[in-house]
């Protein structure tokens, strides 16, 4: 779990350092802008913007019942962020598995991608699709 927060915390600390430097340099407006920009980056790279993750086995079980896609992701992945943002509210109609929190999810992704942990990997009807177009995923949401 700690690994998921390393990049967001680096953004927060960097933003604070830049803001202090701007403030001490007599540029309070620049300090505020820099701090806000870094906080937005921290938020975008944190697990907070993603729907609640479940385990891979639970996701497979639920998907078999309701037919929803399974999205394997990890914090800090820009392609996962892009998929999440482009799905909008529809993202909640998928089962999300954080591969950094679930070893079975990481193993499933490695199996689907020839040993690599390439995310996002979306499983639809039992078939994995690596880094699919968000429009394609949206079309498969119930």
UniProtKB/TrEMBL annotation:
<feature type="domain" description="Glutaredoxin">
    <location>
        <begin position="71"/>
        <end position="127"/>
    </location>
</feature>
<dbReference type="InterPro" id="IPR002109">
    <property type="entry name" value="Glutaredoxin"/>
</dbReference>
<keyword id="KW-1133">Transmembrane helix</keyword>
<dbReference type="InterPro" id="IPR036249">
    <property type="entry name" value="Thioredoxin-like_sf"/>
</dbReference>
<keyword id="KW-0472">Membrane</keyword>
<feature type="transmembrane region" description="Helical">
    <location>
        <begin position="31"/>
        <end position="50"/>
    </location>
</feature>
<protein>
    <submittedName>
        <fullName>Mycoredoxin</fullName>
    </submittedName>
</protein>
<keyword id="KW-0732">Signal</keyword>
<dbReference type="Pfam" id="PF00462">
    <property type="entry name" value="Glutaredoxin"/>
</dbReference>
<keyword id="KW-0812">Transmembrane</keyword>
<feature type="signal peptide">
    <location>
        <begin position="1"/>
        <end position="19"/>
    </location>
</feature>
């Amino acid at each position: 779990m700690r690994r998921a927060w390393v990049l967001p915390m680096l953004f927060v600390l960097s933003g604070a350092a830049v803001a202090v430097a701007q403030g001490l340099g007599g540029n309070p407006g620049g300090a505020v802008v820099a701090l806000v920009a870094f906080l937005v980056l921290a938020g975008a790279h944190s697990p907070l913007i993603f729907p609640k993750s479940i385990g891979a086995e639970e996701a497979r079980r639920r998907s078999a019942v309701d037919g929803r896609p399974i999205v394997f992701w990890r914090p800090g992945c820009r392609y996962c962020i892009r998929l999440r943002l482009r799905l909008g509210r529809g993202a909640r109609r998928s089962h999300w598995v954080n591969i950094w929190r679930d070893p079975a999810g990481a193993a499933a992704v490695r199996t689907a991608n020839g040993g690599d942990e390439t995310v996002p990997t979306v499983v639809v009807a039992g078939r994995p699709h690596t880094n699919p177009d968000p429009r394609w995923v949206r079309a498969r949401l119930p």
